[in-house]
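In response to reviewer comment 3 from the previous cycle, which asked for concrete evidence that the modeling workflow produces usable outputs, we include below a single protein chain processed end to end. The sequence was submitted unchanged, and the resulting structure tokens are shown without manual editing.
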Amino acid sequence: MIPSAVYASNECRDLKTTVDMNDCISAQIQRAEKELAKYFNASKNQLASEPKVVAELDKSQKAWHIYKDLHCGAIYQYWIEGSVRNAKAGNCLLKLTRRRSHDLWEAYL
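The workflow returned the following structure tokens.
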């Protein structure tokens, strides 16, 4: 049994196999990454008249990607012995990606 906190959303909650759950979370991550790209590009467009701010935003996005990969990678390593490792890491990626989209919206749009 995997606790419900592991699931990325209700969409993945009732899936019966680890493979199905991982596929579901992966699809959600892909959608969240597309949404993040939309907010990142909209933010850059909003800031087009301020090249210094755009340069800092680009730097922050690169740093955020490094953080996201390292943080979620650490979660994966922590759970490496269990079949839940992909769900835990995937949920981390999904939450951080959604949070970054919200942060961009809140700051610039």
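The first helix runs from residue 10 to 13. We consider this sufficient to address the reviewer's concern, and the full set will be provided in the supplementary archive.
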